[in-house]
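Structure tokens please, single chain.
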Amino acid sequence: MSEDAEVTISYLILCHDSPDRIVRLVTRILSDDETGQVIIHFDKNSSCAKFNELKARLHSNSRVHILENRVRCGWGQWSLIDASMRLLKFSDFLGAFTHCYLLSEFCFPTQNLNFLKEFLSIDPSIDYIECQDSSWIKNGIREDRIIYRHFLNKKEFPKLHRWSYLIQKNLGLKKHIPSDVEVKFGSQWWCITRQTTKYILSNYTKYKHIFKYSWIPDESFFQTLICDLQNTNRNVVNRTLTKYEFDVNGKPVNIHFPHIYVSDYFFCRKYSNDYYKD
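Here you go.
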């Protein structure tokens, strides 16, 4: 992409809960960004009534696309990568974008998104994603997220999940991680270029076998894959454009808007403001 090309953004939104919250976010995005497009994946585990309500409320806007080909998402499981990949594939199919920005329905802009477009236009070749070592993880297992197989949903089967992990660890049943793959960790909320989107779609299968049964792969899969781009002279900046905070246990903290209205971030997750509560 040439340096003077207009920045056009595909906002990819992972959703599972509130049509009101989603519509509010989409309305704000499209109001701020007159060339942006929104692509939504709504968790197939959620009710059909909510899905149909969401489609009814957004169907008239040609810049909003709601995926029909959905996946049942489980927290900390590969299905979140699957959902994100479906968003990337659909964005690539539409074609009219220079950047993809991954969000959740619990994100909200911290400032007018024209400032985001101005920021990205300074150097449109940069990917913004955290790519850090395992010390980024606040609490719990670190490298073991990747090198052992986590078949079960921890929230649904906490004891079985831990027993399965400990049995593998005691028996030394580690996965093989290729020597040329350096696993990285970071926030799952990133902004990447069209060129990187195509790289991910082309190299997806190489990394899938490493991460499919890892624990919380959305905090390592894209980070590892994109970090490898640095070896191909691509521009990867180790930071996110979405403000987030974790507590000491690694759980997301609600952020109050007056505290994050700063130029370094363009979205926040999760926000806490009485005006925006459902």
